[in-house]
Amino acid sequence: MSIYVVQPGDNVNSIAETFGVAPETLVFINQIPAPYPLAIGQALYLPTTDGTAEGLLPGNPAPPRPATVGGYAYPFISPYVLFQSLPYLTDLFIFSYGFTTEGALIPPPISPDWMISAALLQGVRPILTLTPFDASGQFNNYLISVVINDPTSVERLISEVVNELQVKGFQGVDVDFEFIRAEDRDAFVAFVARMQEAVSALGYETSVALAPKTSADQQGLLYEGKDYPGLGAVADYVLLMTYEWGYKYGPPMSVAPIPQVRRVVEYALTEIPPEKIHLGIPNYGYDWPLPFIAGETSAAVIGNIEAVQLAVRNNVPIQFDAAARSPFFFYSTPSSQHEVWFEDVRDFQEKYRLIVEYGLRGMSYWTIMQLFRAGWYQQADYFFPSRSGL
């Protein structure tokens, strides 16, 4: 058994004794702060001893090893968090570079040089993530439209990206354009194809992030400009952004409920080969004040460990939604009531099962800004037994 759910009367010592795990190991992996309180319903990850993880599919004694494991991070990530995470990654997606309407590349406000060096020292590929952010830090589809429809701007942007790869030491490009207009659909495919051609000449790959579609004709600004078969053909691989069903301005629910994630994967597989698909995995949750009022309520982003400690402080049990395969809980303050949904090792296990079941290339985490060490140990046990316990 590699996942244990805390029951009434449990404590760190009793769980460690039952499963033959050193208490300090249990505390370290699950990031349990002194004096080591637990929440009823909290899922703990126990290190395995035989190089396999609980829950492998029948008939699969060991899953195929995914080719790549990516993690997105901003340059202001804590060095400690980054250094703890790099051993479990093959690609570090540095978020992000922007560009002007003339195609001039805009570097991040904080230099990513230290992240590039840290990644290369660990044998991890640093990836330049390209986003069409405007001055307010929002995705700007006018900026996308102006650039990708102007051959001069396209060539300038690609030339400057290629130069940045060579000067800084990046080893790939990730194109993360969102809210693309329907009329720019074909121009965007052509832009990614041109980027891939230029980047592959250096021996590197180009990936593209895809909104979580479930059909070819799905309506909505987030979906209409993303041509799954076209982009799947020209990019080296794609990231399915399978998260944000529960989001900042929406009603309380799981960030990445498994039934919805599965639907996206199943549609993607009708258009793109599995060896070109990364599953997006969220590494966060949300804390919603109640009652939820559409257009008014705004949830706070919360880390997975932070969520558990919030349940501990408020002495409330963590529940588990059997359909969404996600943990949640309620708590109250003197002035408000709250509903929290987040990710834990049970969530991650379900997503790892999908990767194995469908033979996907791998996974990418949005984001690795907050350390979730149990997830790294679980991933290592599940996919890379030789790296377990790093």
- Number of β-strand runs: 16
> Over all CA atoms, what is the radius of gyration?
21 Å
Strand content: 15-25%
The share of residues in helices is 25-40%
- Uncertain runs are 50-64
Content-based structural category = alpha/beta
Q: Give the N-to-C terminal Cα separation.
A: 20 Å
Strand order of the largest sheet: 3-4-6-7-8-9-10-16
The run of helices and strands is EHHEEHEEHEHHEHEHEHEEEHEEEHEH
**Sheet with most strands:** 8 strands, parallel, barrel
Mean of pLDDT: 93
Instruction: Please tell me what the overall shape is.
Output: globular
The DSSP helix count reads 12
Task: Record keyword descriptors for this entry.
20% strand; 8-stranded parallel beta barrel; globular; single chain; alpha/beta
Question: How does this model look, in words?
Answer:
This protein is of the alpha/beta class. The protein is 33% helix and 20% strand. The protein has 12 helices and 16 strands. It has helices at 12-19, 23-30, 79-85, 113-121, 141-148, 151-168, 185-200, 228-234, 258-268, 304-313, 345-358, 373-383; strands spanning 3-5, 43-45, 68-73, 91-99, 105-106, 125-130, 172-175, 205-210, 237-240, 277-282, 285-290, 300-302, 319-321, 326-332, 337-341, 362-366. The strands form 3 sheets. An 8-stranded parallel beta barrel has the order 3-4-6-7-8-9-10-16, surrounded by 6 helices. A 5-stranded antiparallel β-sheet has the order 12-11-15-14-13. Helix 6 (151-168) packs parallel to helix 7 and helix 11 (345-358) packs parallel to helix 12 (373-383). It is globular. Mean pLDDT is 93; it is low at 50-64.
